[in-house]
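Sequence, please.
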């Protein structure tokens, strides 16, 4: 009973910007690392960015460094992705990800995924 819900996807022209958000809810005891992944048609899902709970240490794919910024709000259990200078190669479904310890079972950490939000880059 843990859910991740993304929002903020849409259509943008090359060079434009979008901000994606993800909210975690449900029977959550603790969340550590959160991140964003994306999947384009015909390709496997790939890492975009991650951020740790302690210290907010970030990690980015080389293809998005300098253009994308990941951030989180631990009190609200949310993670965001600011995407600037978007290019056609960024077009994909973007998924939120989190490592969660549930109140229902605190014996194991589990990975949860959001439903995905479409980002389209076109002129």
């Amino acid at each position: 009973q843990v859910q991740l819900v993304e929002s903020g996807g849409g259509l943008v022209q090359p060079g434009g910007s979008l901000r994606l958000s993800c909210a975690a809810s449900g029977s959550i005891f603790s969340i550590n690392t959160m991140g964003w992944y994306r999947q384009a048609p015909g390709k496997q899902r790939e890492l975009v960015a991650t951020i740790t709970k302690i210290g907010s240490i970030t990690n980015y794919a080389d293809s998005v460094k300098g253009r994308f910024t990941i951030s989180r709000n631990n009190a609200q259990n949310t993670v965001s992705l600011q995407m600037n200078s978007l290019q056609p190669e960024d077009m994909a479904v973007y998924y939120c990800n989190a490592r969660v310890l549930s109140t229902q079972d605190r014996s194991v950490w589990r990975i949860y995924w959001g439903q995905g939000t479409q980002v389209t880059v076109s002129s």
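The two ends are 40 Å apart (CA to CA).
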